[in-house]
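Exam revision sheet. Question 4 asks you to relate a sequence to its structure. Input first:
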Amino acid sequence: MKPMQSLLTECCRVAEEAAMAGGRVLLAHRYEPLEIAHKERQEVVTNVDRLADEAICGILTRHFPDHSIISEESGVSQTTSPYTWIVDPLDGTESYIRGQNFSGVTIALACEGHTLLGIVYHPFQDELYTTIWNEETTLNGRPLRVSGVAALEQARLIIDYSPRDALRQYLQEVEWNRGIKQMFRFGGSIALNMCLVAKGAVDGYVYGRMRNRVKSWDIAAAALLVRGAGGQALDRQGQPLDTLQPQGFVLCCNAQLDLYRLLGSEILSLPTP
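Answer key, structure tokens:
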């Protein structure tokens, strides 16, 4: 086994351990009163976000003390290492607060602008999604594949958009005029919505919130999981999603559906707030 492969295998093992430790924190506190504070853009944070962050980053730091960490909750811990862990200890905080149980833990490892591995853990379903760059995605150790639906009239899509953005009206018109079989409006964890594409539970996911751009800790792990399952994660220009930069538009789907082309080039002309 090559040194890089050996390192990634060890990193993946530790990341799975860390993700499950964070998930146990989410489960342990779900029925308890929460301490809730507000951040920017109407976002919220709870004491559980911070407790899960401590559990996750503690494990990562213990095993890889020379690696950098970027966490949504604890910020940046910078080292000279080329390796950086990207952590969201509770993706879907609003869902967690409301007891909807569509929240999870996301962990990615990046090096020199490339995401090398991705882990998403859904503790309420005990689902552990794992992938390493250029390898297949697994769910609890079993290989995953996206769906094979190619026709828009047979597609089931998840959409997540701001009511104040022009994308909302456009997607409603697409749904009506182009005969999409079914569209769901889901909130909660962005990463878990993307994982539903990876496992073929839905055929596509569209995120459009130009005022509330998703960050690397929301999408880095999940985009790699979608790709490892044979799907694609694209930006507003139809290009591979740069998950290390904030994004106001995310499109995930299986390769057969080619959802970007089916939605039309009008996406490019929509006003950006």
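Marking note for examiners. The chain is about 35% helix and 25% strand.
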